[in-house]
Amino acid sequence: MKITLVFAALFLTVFSFVLKAQHTDAAANKKTEWLMTSFLQHKTEQTTILGNPTIVLSPYGNAVAFDGIDDALFLKEMPLKGLKSFTVEMIFKPESNGVFEQRILHIGGVTTDRMLLEIRAVNNHWYFDGFVASKGVKLALATEELMHPLEKWYHVVFVVTANSLTTYVNGKEELHQDYTFNPIEEGQTSIGVRMNKVSWFKGAIYKIQISPGALKPNEFLRL
Fold first, then answer.
1. pLDDT higher than threshold 80 for residue 128
2. Angle at Cα 160 formed by Cα 155 and Cα 165, nearest 5°?
3. How many Cα neighbours within 13 Å face the side chain of 68?
4. How far apart are CA 51 and CA 69, in angstroms?
5. Among its keywords, does the record have Acetylation (predicted)?
6. 25 and 69 in a common domain
7. Which range is least confidently modeled, 24-28, 58-62, 106-110, 184-188?
8. CA-to-CA distance for 91 and 106, rounded, in angstroms?
9. Model pTM score
10. Same domain, residue pair 15 and 57
11. CA atoms lying within 13 Å on the CB side of residue 30
């Protein structure tokens, strides 16, 4: 009888471990897709809206416009948790008369481990900045030599792997650099501003998508 109980307890322990591992694997393989309008049309307790982001038309469907002053979305979500590599994509339109430094997407902690999609606006143009902080090591992938006109729609991609960072604009690789990345385990998400409410974004966003793993250009979203 005692042997039977021991085997039963052992079975339950192993079964529980397997279920937990399967749940972890499923979560790690889950793609996150955010249509910006859904946050305004179907607001939940997970979303805080700052200012007055508005729905506007885009070539792809309705998008959300941010005024560059006090419009933003804060989400009680952490889609990068535990990911050893990932691909972040965004379809957006940066507009004129915004500040120089604009933080568009911030995931993770305020000053601890985090990932950001940013732009720098200069003389009616902008350049892309993919930023990561991991275990105290920070790296911004950006150069003003790769400028793009404002007031147009773009698809930007930031690919983060265990040993490198790569940025793309409209399917074309811009920058690549070696980097040792450790998974981001804690934090939340802000859209339209850095999490401490500085560096507001002026423009519109149609969609943000986060995929586990490093996608190839032929797997990216299409404009």
1. yes
2. 85
3. 16
4. 8
5. no
6. no
7. 24-28
8. 16
9. 0.87
10. no
11. 15
Residue 161: what are its φ and ψ, rounded to 5°?
Answer: -120, 180
d(CA 201, CA 43): 21
For position 194, which CATH number holds? 2.60.120.200
114 vs 188: CA distance, rounded Å:
9
Q: Is 99 exposed, middle or buried (0-12, 13-18, 19+ CB in 10 A)?
A: middle
Domain carrying residue 52: 31-219
Q: Single out the residue of 126, 134, 64 nearest to residue 101, CA to CA.
A: 126
Identify the CA nearest to 90 among candidates 29, 181, 168. Answer: 168
H helix or E strand, kind and range, residue 128: strand 125-134
For the chain, how long is the longest CA-to-CA vector? Answer: 81
146 with 74, same domain: the answer is yes
- Does 75 lie in the same domain as 20? no
- 136 and 209 fall within a common domain: yes
**Tokens (6 digits) for 177:** 């650099």
Dump pLDDT digits (tens) for 3-36: 554 444 444 443 344 334 333 344 457 899 999 9
- pLDDT for 3 equals 52
Distance CA 34, CA 208 (A): 5
